Amino acid sequence: MSDDETLIAALAAVLAVAFWGGALVTAVQVNPLVRSGRRLAAAVAALVVSLGVVLGALLTGADPQVRSGAGYIVLFLAVAADALALVTLVGPVFGLRVLGDFVRGKNAAVGWAVAGLWLGTGLVNAGANVGRGDTIYTTLGPLGLALGTFVVLTAILAVATGRFRAIRLDRDTPAGVRVGGLFVAWGLVLGRAVAGDWESTRRTLEDFVNYGWPVLALLGAAIVVERMLRPTVRRPQVPWTAGVGPAGAYVAVAVELVVRR
């Protein structure tokens, strides 16, 4: 690794340890009367799975120099942890607070949504790490493009749903499952859109548009579905099928697109 790569790895690792270490300490220090060990364990498991997806991509699909270099593995895992920290930090802006609403607030709907948010972010990172490149920037650049798009899509959906009102206030678990499935579908499509060997900036942008545009169709469908299936006064309880069905459909469509391309 070059000096600048080593510096980036060190900075990324310090940021990741500081954020996630602080988050874990804060979660553990929550009053036992409101803290649930099971919910905290579920959140940690979701985080580990998301990082595991990235590690799997690094060990099997990354540039051979990355696969054979422990330093590069640490670097890109730390970057992935920082990306997860970023979406966790902006989550409350959209109405998704993993500590306040899930671990402490007993809101299972938020738990499902945040798990999908983390896994989708992990899939974006995994895709960006697949393929050969001359420098680490041929991974970090496409990653930034895909992750930025992911966050913008989440912001648009949040605005269209009143900052995920059904999840945040109504505590509608099927809504959390639906949104979590959508996040995973976005991660699959965007991860595929930035996967592959580096050729040029122009080719990267062309591939991103050609392979990534279905996320807009998924967004449009999700906005319609959320308005149709949100809880109402006449229908305060929404069946589980209203969550699992759309979530499964989102993921199935994304998998089909990725396999075809």
State the domain count.
1
Gap between N and C termini: 33 Å
**Major pleated sheet:** none
Q: How much helix, percentage-wise, in residues?
A: over 70%
SSE class = mainly alpha
* H and E string: HHHHHHHHHHHH
- What low-confidence regions span 5 or more consecutive residues with pLDDT below 50? none
How many strands?
A: 0
Q: What is the rounded Rg?
A: 18 Å
Strand content: under 5%
Number of helices: 12
What general form does the structure show? globular
Q: What integer is the average pLDDT?
A: 92
Describe this structure in words.
With 261 residues, the protein is an all-alpha fold. The protein has one domain (3-260). Helix content is 78%, strand content 0%. It contains twelve helices and no strands. It has helices spanning 3-28, 37-60, 64-67, 70-94, 98-103, 108-128, 137-160, 165-168, 173-193, 201-212, 214-229, 241-260. The longest helix has 26 residues, at 3-28. The protein is globular. It starts with a helix and ends with a helix. The mean pLDDT is 92.
Quick structural summary:
Helices cover 78% and strands 0% of the residues.
Please render the helix and strand layout as text.
Elements: H1 3-28, H2 37-60, H3 64-67, H4 70-94, H5 98-103, H6 108-128, H7 137-160, H8 165-168, H9 173-193, H10 201-212, H11 214-229, H12 241-260
